[in-house]
Recover the amino acids of this structure.
DNA sequence: GGCTATCATAACGGCTCCGAAATTAAATGT
DNA sequence: ACATTTAATTTCGGAGCCGTTATGATAGCC
């Protein structure tokens, strides 16, 4: 099953959601940070700095710094990989899950009213 | 008619699109710039600095600077309002329309494969 | 043990954005 | 005509993110 969406509906949806995020100013994540956050929560684990950097096509310090920022916001968690202590395993948090839950509700709600 | 979308589909859609934009690195717009751009192209004109600032709940310099940046990218256009020369009327460009057309195609395409 | 490779982070300089306050220009009121 | 109001911009100091390069710590190989 697929989700049918017309071009103008897509742009209106994007405008509604982005506008809502800007006005709300809750966490003020950059596009890269959002991509990292969604990858962590929606892609199968484990997630490492190296893996995320490769996926996003950015350098590793970009990931490290984004994790610093989002870690302070409690949206993600870091811990050392016990089996190879060079690696850092990136994990979810309750706050992060709640944030994305609210975010998805917003998208679903805006989508509902698109072609009304 | 409405667009049915489940929470996990919404987040997967967002991840796909945002990831694509990050990897592509075409214009690298901030969230605020994207909100401004989409408002200009999807909301009924006329658009002014003051109006956009009020809509996004930001100060006017934020709008002025975003228009500087996106003007250099040829995504938007500025001209004085002839009937009240204090106002600046913000308009669309061919490049901006093409950019958003490609962007909407991306969203539509990603949406198509969501629940496959 | 010692060499090399790998992973993440820290340090550095550069760029862009931010909000607040000051400035310029145009319209309006008296 | 002149003071006030309104719109947009410029200026200023500060904060955050960027990529490159250097550093530290762990693992694997001989």
């Amino acid at each position: 099953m697929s989700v049918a969406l017309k071009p103008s509906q897509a742009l209106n949806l994007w405008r509604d959601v982005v506008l809502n995020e800007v006005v709300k100013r809750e966490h003020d994540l950059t596009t890269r940070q959002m991509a990292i956050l969604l990858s962590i929560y929606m892609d199968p684990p484990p997630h490492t700095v190296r893996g995320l950097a490769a996926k996003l096509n950015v350098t590793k310090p970009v990931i490290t710094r984004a994790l610093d920022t989002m870690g302070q916001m409690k949206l993600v968690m870091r811990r050392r990989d016990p089996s190879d202590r060079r690696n850092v395993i990136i994990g979810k948090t309750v706050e992060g899950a709640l944030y994305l839950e609210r975010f998805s509700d917003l998208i679903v709600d805006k989508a509902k009213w698109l072609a009304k």
Notes: The beta strands of chain A are 76-80, 88-92. The first helix of chain A runs from residue 7 to 24. The two ends of chain A are 22 Å apart (CA to CA).
